[in-house]
Amino acid sequence: MCFNEFKALFHFIPLGFEIYILIFLIALFYPFRICKFLIFRFIFLLS
Questions:
Q1: Per-residue pLDDT at 11
Q2: Nearest to 42, CA basis, from 28, 25, 27, 32
Q3: pLDDT of residue 21
Q4: Quick one: pLDDT at residue 12?
Q5: Which candidate, 24, 26, 27, 2, places its Cα nearest to that of 13?
Q6: Cα 1 to chain center, whole Å?
Q7: Which of 7, 24, 38, 47 has an alpha carbon within 20 to 30 A of 15's alpha carbon?
Q8: pLDDT value of residue 15
Q9: What is the pTM of this model?
Q10: Is 20 exposed, middle or buried (0-12, 13-18, 19+ CB in 10 A)?
Q11: Transmembrane residues, as ranges (predicted)?
């Protein structure tokens, strides 16, 4: 999917929350569990 198309899907979401969604999608589709853990920990530290 083109990045512009992806951005268009989330044009109604504030930029800060858009980044959370991108990180969440990466965490879901990233195959390594340790990396998933680090990403979710990163989200936890941000919130």
A1: 65
A2: 27
A3: 77
A4: 63
A5: 24
A6: 15
A7: 38
A8: 65
A9: 0.34
A10: middle
A11: 12-32
How would DSSP label each residue in 2-44? -HHHHHHHTTTS-HHHHHHHHHHHHHHH---HHHHHHHHHHHH
Question: Which residues of the chain fall short of a pLDDT of 70?
Answer: 1-15, 30-36, 47
In whole angstroms, give the CA distance from residue 37 to residue 32: 9
State which amino acid sits at residue 43.
I
What SS3 state is found at 30? coil
- Tokens (6 digits) for 5: 């198309």
d(CA 47, CA 40): 11
Confidence (pLDDT) at 40: 76
For the chain, what are the domain ranges?
21-47
